[in-house]
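Memo to structure team: turn this sequence into structure tokens by end of day. - J.P.
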Amino acid sequence: MKQKIVLAYSGGLDTTVIIPWLKENYDCDIAAVCVDLGQEADWRAVKKRALDTGALSCVVVDVKKEYVEQYIWPALKANALYEDKYLLGTSTARPLIAKVLVEQARREKAGAIAHGATGKGNDQVRFDLGIMALAPDLEIIAPWRTWRIKSREEEIRYLEERKLPVPMKKWESYSRDDNLWHISHEGLELEDPATEPLLERMLKMSVPPQKAPGKAGYVELGFEKGIPVSLDGKKMDGVSLILALNKIGGAHGVGIVDIVENRVVGMKSRGVYETPGGTILYYAHQELEHLCLDRQTYAFKQTAAQKLGEVIYGGLWFTPLREALSAFVDSTQKTVTGTVRVKLYKGSISSAGASSPYSLYNASIASFTTGELYNHADARGFIRLYGLPVLVRALMERDNRGGKTPGNKAKAGKGGKTGTPGATDAKSKGTAG
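Reply from structure team:
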């Protein structure tokens, strides 16, 4: 009996090559699974390509709503980034793809799951860990870790030799991943960090900032408990809101990131990411948090956000740590409700005002005009106590510089007596001992 293998199929070069390769190296039937995360794809053509190259079946699973609500929003509420720049577009999608693959493998009664992640990349870690967490009994097949193919050019040649359709032209062979949150680009000139990226040839969602309109654009975003719910006063579901912001942000050249990052497997890699709508949402959400979160909560949340970014990037979505970090973040979002207006201009974003019923900004305290809630004279005592460690250290250093031991030196009073000014000599009281 033939083995049943579920393949994560995108219709791109890697997974198109994997179908005939699996047929040649395994006695198997292949059930191709396309996971619709909002990427730009002709699913009818993708399904036909899978069947034409040897798959027994091909299904498309639409998980856009789940992706936004269960994966993107937790990252957004945390303001989680990886290495200060990357908005985790691929990282948040991979665990959901792994979940869909496991569910489909159960339906198909398959014994293995195959994916097209390379042996040098992060995605192999994310896929494998997701599958391991949800279905430790299933075999994982990653052809890039075992086959003799060494480059994308060899992949193209592999298909041409078998007279199979090649899903891209040779000159266009950037390695790309896209969904409704972002699109990533790797390869070609990007493999030299000293080379400027060819944005006009590369970009799909955005225009280069220099080609953006000469007039600024404005958007107003509404949030409820940290989740975006409206755009310019109109209530919208998450998928529609992100897609609308992608068009607006892309037209203004917002959200283009060129980064050399540290991969999970230890090497550095360079990529260009387009995240126009996501960049606007992150900015607006953080502006609202500045208004609604107290200092200590905001400071610790920054630490948690950095850790959460590392956890998501490293493929550890289905872990107690990720769940605990998300639970903490959710607890901070109870008052992150309000509206934020932002200005977009030639790739930049700036604040144009924010308001919230839970705002901690109090004009009667913050204003330069003295109000009843704040007495300027109180600041002296506060600073004295707040800075006491600074004062004590300064006194110690002063005394040591003078060759004296730390501490206050007794002063001589009238008549050569020492002690606190105005103190009575102990001997005059007859208390010498």
